[in-house]
Amino acid sequence: MWKYFGVICNVVTVLLGSGLGLLLRRRAAKAPAEEGPNGKLPPREPLPQVMMVCLGFCTIFAAASGLLGIESGVQALISVASMAGGFLIGWALRIDDRLNLMGDRLLERFGGARPGQKNPAEGVVTATLLFCIGSMTFLGSFESAANPTGYLDLNCHTTLLIKSLLDFVSATCLTVTFGASVMGAAAVVLVFQGLLVALAAQLQPFLERIGAMPAVNCVGSMILLAIALNLIGLKKIKTADYLPALFIPILLCWLIA
User: Fold this and answer.
1) Measured between alpha carbons, how far is residue 199 from residues 22, 65, 163, 191 in Å?
2) I need a surface site. Which of 62, 111, 175, 243 has the fewest CB within 10 A?
3) Has residue 126 been placed in a domain?
4) Distance CA 70, CA 74 (A)
5) Nearest to 20 by CA among 57, 58, 54, 47
6) Strand, coil or helix: 149
7) What percent of the chain is modeled with pLDDT above 90?
8) Is 148 helix (H, G, I), strand (E, B) or coil?
9) Domain-embedded: residue 226
């Protein structure tokens, strides 16, 4: 049971951050505009917009650590091939479009979209990718799986505890923009990271033997960069279409090994 301590902490911080984000969202909506000539302050950018830009820069920093983990040309080639192949699969299946269509239907089913309302699927997808993709998710899950049976060893959960603090801030920022739909990502975090911890003890020897972890982390970091571009507003990228790319490095490394 203690193997899942880091995962539970991560889920709790996502929920707490989402709750704080809802409070900030309501406060920002009621805040009076500070504008006008004659020495008054100029119009201020909406709080969700500046928070998302800030989060975008933080995401770039988080992605950089995974990209720096590539140590050989073969790993780099596998990462690039996986991104290209994974995107083609996602594009053919139209994963991102289908998720957004599902969100549109949810809006129609539960009262319809209102002016300025964000698509709930976009919030869930963005939060899920941000919380579940990256070197900290995989490395942290593998560390947590090493927790001995019968007692809690915090040294085995350091990475996931640090990630929990980052996700708290991220959940707050995302909820300010996307609303309560971000809380749905907590369930995905619980299932996804819980499964990673449960399977880590069985998979870790295999993945280390075939040398797949660096390429998987690199692919995840590149997807994080795509998310960062979306958050900053530089480019609209259908990030969900890249999800199949996470599994291709395992196949390629296994074939090479």
Assistant:
1) 34, 24, 20, 12
2) 111
3) yes
4) 9
5) 47
6) coil
7) 19
8) coil
9) yes
Q: Which of 6, 2, 229, 230 is nearest to 137 (CA)?
A: 6
pLDDT digits (tens, 9 = 90+) for 11-23: 999 999 999 988 8
Q: Which two structure tokens, joined as six digits, stand for 66? A: 């995974």
Give a yes or no: residue 37 inside a domain.
no
Q: What is the CA radius of gyration of the chain?
A: 20
pTM (2 d.p.): 0.70
In the chain, % helix, strand, coil (3-state, to 5) comes to: 80, 0, 20
Give the distance between the most distant pair of CA atoms in the chain.
71
**What is the per-residue pLDDT across 126-167, written as a single tens digit (0 to 9) for each?**
888 888 876 678 878 888 888 887 888 888 888 888 888 888
Position 104, amino acid: D
Q: Is 121 exposed, middle or buried (0-12, 13-18, 19+ CB in 10 A)?
A: buried
Give me the number of domains the chain comprises: 1
CB 124 within 8 A of CB 185: yes
Q: What is the pLDDT of residues 231-247, one digit of tens each?
A: 788 888 888 888 889 88
> Tokens 């203690």 map to which residue?
2
